[in-house]
Design brief:
GO molecular function, one term: acyltransferase activity, transferring groups other than amino-acyl groups
Number of domains: 1
Low-confidence stretches: 2-10, 87-100, 104-113
Number of strands: 7
Pfam family, one: Acetyltransf_1
CATH topology: Aminopeptidase
CATH architecture: 3-Layer(aba) Sandwich
Order of helices and strands: EHHHEHEHEHEHEE
InterPro entries: Acyl_CoA_acyltransferase (IPR016181), GNAT_dom (IPR000182), Trichothecene_AcTrans (IPR052523)
Structural class: alpha+beta
Number of helices: 7
CATH class: Alpha Beta
Organism: Xylaria bambusicola
Oligomer: single chain
Strand content: 15-25%
Mean pLDDT: 86
Protein name: N-acetyltransferase domain-containing protein
Distance between the termini: 23 Å
Length: about 250
């Protein structure tokens, strides 16, 4: 699930793209909860404030596992003092497909304390004949597993229809601190993945909210399948319909 928010930040400090390090996991979890706080599916799956406190810890632990996984790239965007010669800074959400470079490992330790404003997780292509299983989530007590499992099944079916069993880069999660939207962070993180798709000659895949769809279309993705699920609101007799769109990026399409 990927979300684009509308609040504009007043800070114009340039941004740089980094691979996440373990010390970033808590901030990733904080941004995730702030960015997705009003998402209807999240609220249905994790229906009380107490459950959502547990979810934040689940996100932190999953981020730690993903950062340590060689088949997953967790990216973060940090504010950085202005450097006019840096190739991986940006100041506008312009939708261009020039991928800014990721800061090298030798620079990470020195730069890690800088403020993170956004994160993304890209799962790498894995062939079905490869013995690999991504680290499992540890869901908090009180999670509505019926709704969660129902949505996971719907999303898996959507991906199967969109790309079949072909290995692909998958943008699993992306979030920006709502106070720092429209500064270019989302484009930087998406462009990183598109460069990998073009380099390796494999598709890119993601599931987007309806509101975020124009952003991904601008970035070069094509809408493929609508994913939907009707669910009962906890404690009520009425039901709601939740929808997202599966998007596919084809190498060389931009």
């Amino acid at each position: 699930m990927n979300y684009i928010f509308s609040l504009r930040a007043c800070n114009t400090m340039p941004l740089r793209l980094y691979p996440a390090v373990p010390a970033d996991a808590n901030r990733i979890s904080e941004i995730h909860m702030a960015a997705f706080a009003s998402n209807a599916m999240l609220l249905a799956q994790f229906p009380t404030p107490e459950v959502r406190v547990g979810l934040r810890e689940s996100i932190r632990l999953k981020a730690l596992a993903d950062i340590d996984d060689p088949k997953v790239s967790v990216l973060v965007v940090r504010e950085h003092p202005f450097d006019p010669d840096s190739p991986n800074t940006t100041g506008a959400e312009d939708g261009s497909n020039q991928c800014p470079g990721v800061v090298r490992e030798r620079e990470m330790e020195e730069s890690a304390p800088r403020g993170i404003i956004a994160f993304a997780k890209w799962s790498h292509p894995v062939s079905k004949d490869v013995d690999y299983e991504e680290a499992a989530w540890a869901w908090p007590a009180g999670t509505n597993m019926r709704i969660l499992n129902g949505w996971v099944k719907a999303a898996e079916e959507g991906q199967e229809e969109a790309v079949g069993d072909r290995p692909c880069y998958r943008l699993t999660f992306m979030g920006t601190d709502p106070a720092h939207e429209r500064r270019g962070a989302a484009s930087m993180m998406v462009n990183w993945g598109l460069e990998q798709c073009n380099k390796d000659g494999v598709p890119g895949y993601l599931e987007s909210t309806l509101e975020a769809a124009p952003f991904y279309e601008k970035m070069g993705f094509a809408a493929s399948v609508k994913i939907s699920m009707r669910y009962l609101i906890e404690g009520q007799d009425q039901s709601e319909m939740y929808e997202e769109i599966a998007f596919v990026y084809r190498p060389g399409s931009t």
